[in-house]
Amino acid sequence: MNIECPKCKSKEFTKLSLLYATGFSDIETRSRGWGILFGSGADLAFGKFRTKGEVQTRLSQNVAPPRKWSYRKIVFGGLLGLLILDFILGYVDTFLRTGGNVNQQFAWFGYGYLGMVAFILFLAFRYNFTVFPRRYRVWNRSFMCRSCGHIAQLSLPIDPSGQALVRAASR
Ligand SMILES: [Zn+2]
Hints:
Blueprint: E1 13-15, H1 16-22, H2 24-29, E2 35-38, E3 42-45, H3 52-62, H4 71-96, H5 100-140, E4 142-145, E5 151-155, E6 165-168
Bound molecules: zinc ion (ZN).
């Protein structure tokens, strides 16, 4: 493994997925002497970080994999919104004692709302099938510099000289 950090020229990297799997608590409680088996079997010890807080912030921001949009949450949120909407409209209707005419408008309002929820579901569907796999692949070959926390991606295939090309993570 021959990656060089574009920022600090360090050659020690840890895969993001590995960092994520290991969890934050491990790093918190064992800030030094933390060894991992990696890639070719080289035993790498976790170097000391400048400050723990800084690393944790970076970890929480950068290490977690991209997530799929949850259809269930959207539907649940949509239903909840509909209930609130219904309640408000019902209240307004009772309060104003409007009668049938305005009810029709409320109905259209409700259809519009349902259409919006459907549209959000469609966006989620599209995201999960196009953007998400791409982001996940990028995440899965992302590495974090163990000196400065810079995140870089290993671009495959590795060229014949054995030098892995590193470019800045595009997020
Ligand atoms: Zn670095």
